[in-house]
Amino acid sequence: MELVLFSGGAAKAVASGLQGDFEAQQGCAVSATFGAVGLMRDKLLSGEPCDVLILSASLITALEQQGYVVAGSARDLGSVATGVAVRAGDPAVAIGEADALRAALSAARGLYVPHLGKSSAGIHVANVLERLELTQVMRGRVREYPNGATAMRELAAATGGGLMGCTQVTEILYTPGVKLVGELPPGYGLDTVYTAAVCTQARHPELACRFVQALSGDASRRLRQHSGFKLDS
Fold it and tell me: What CATH number labels 2-78+193-227?
């Protein structure tokens, strides 16, 4: 029996961390695809089979209203901040307030980001650059990738100085070769709630419900916190 998961990249560490035990306990296999939340939504809407979704809460709500998610099945995993990264061996940059962030971005030779139109963090980065009046300044220096995990891997592999990345904190934390500088400063940050839910066309709805519970229940709290999720007390 195979359970199919489409998930935003921010939840990869949690889903992957639970996968082995869940497969052993339930006698199943979990086939997981991770990427920008907009791209994962589009895969579902195109008709690709899916049992469980982990997307931003707003997308899950919209999909439930459209009949793609089982009503009442959604469970929040917690919220994830958007953060700034540099390569593991590079010095940290000052980003504690708007002027410092503007200066750091202006000086950057390259900014590695997820899809600026399909990912939660990418859409937010585009808005931040606009608010800081850096959209034109950074043109040609923004390195855009399909998702945050890919952007961070490319940042880790890049050479030369003056490189930064910006994506979900969870994606920074699970990528070798990069380090988290910090969250975006007050007034420019974004905390995105991620939610797991069962698809209405799930081939294994009962198994999907159990996986949603494993992702969001008390047993996974420590894993979610360690992965960079913020949880309600």
Answer: 3.40.190.10
For position 118, what pLDDT does the model report? 87
| Euclidean distance between CA atoms 120 and 194, whole angstroms | 10
Strand 52-56 and strand 191-198: the pairing is antiparallel
Which class is domain 80-183? alpha beta
- Smallest CA-to-CA distance from 75 within 60, 90, 86 is with 60
> In sequence order, what E strands does the chain have?
2-8, 29-35, 52-56, 75-87, 110-114, 142-145, 163-168, 178-183, 191-198
DSSP state of 50: -
Per-residue pLDDT of 153-181, as tens digits, reads: 999 999 999 999 999 999 999 999 999 99
97 in Cβ contact with 151 (< 8 Å): no
Q: Does residue 233 surpass a pLDDT of 80?
A: no
For the chain, residues classed under CATH 3.40.190.10 are: 2-78+193-227, 80-183
Q: What is the pLDDT of residues 182-204, one digit of tens each?
A: 999 999 999 999 999 999 999 99
The secondary structure of residue 91, as a DSSP letter, is P
pLDDT digits (tens, 9 = 90+) for 44-94: 999 999 999 999 999 999 999 999 999 999 999 999 999 999 999 999 999
Radius of gyration of the chain (CA): 18
Task: Of 61, 82, 57, give the one whose Cα is nearest residue 165.
Answer: 82
d(CA 197, CA 155): 32
Q: Judge whether 37 and 53 are in contact, CB under 8 Å.
A: no
For residue 161, give the 3-state DSSP assignment.
coil
